[in-house]
Amino acid sequence: MKKSRKRRPTNEEIVVTVINKMFEIAGHDVTYNDVKDRKDAWYTEWTMTVAQDKEWKEWMKTYFIKECKMLKGFVEREAAMVSLMWGLKLSDYE
Predict the structure, then answer these.
(1) Coil, helix or strand for 29?
(2) Which domain holds residue 55?
(3) Does 32 reside within a domain?
């Protein structure tokens, strides 16, 4: 019997998953669906700590490698770009 290959998530599915995980790690009761149609800087309304940001980036790297089949050398930069574009404001950044 032939082993079936797992489908790579689409870019939209990746964004939804990553943003939902960010809100989960930061402890906010918000989802991607709550912010998807907003045109303002919604990511400045909520905060996360530097430790939560680091946890989220580490989770993203693992997700990008395992689920999205990205190369290990590429995931660090991709996680940084996602954090820059959609990451929440850091509450304890010095």
Answers:
(1) coil
(2) 42-94
(3) no
Query: Does 50 fall in a domain?
Result: yes
Interatomic CA distance for residues 82 and 21, integer angstroms: 12
pTM recorded for the entire structure: 0.87
Q: How many CA atoms lie within 13 A of 13 on its CB side?
A: 8
DSSP 67: T
The distance from CA 12 to its chain's CA centroid, rounded to whole angstroms, is 12
What's the CA gap between 51 and 59, in Å, rounded? 12
How many domains is the chain partitioned into structurally? 1
Q: Is the pLDDT at 93 greater than 90, yes or no?
A: no
- 63 Cβ contact partners less than 8 Å away, ≥ 6 residues apart: 17, 18, 21
pLDDT in tens, 4-43: 667 889 999 999 999 999 999 999 999 999 999 989 988 8
State how far the Cα of 84 lies from the Cα of 40, in Å rounded to an integer: 16
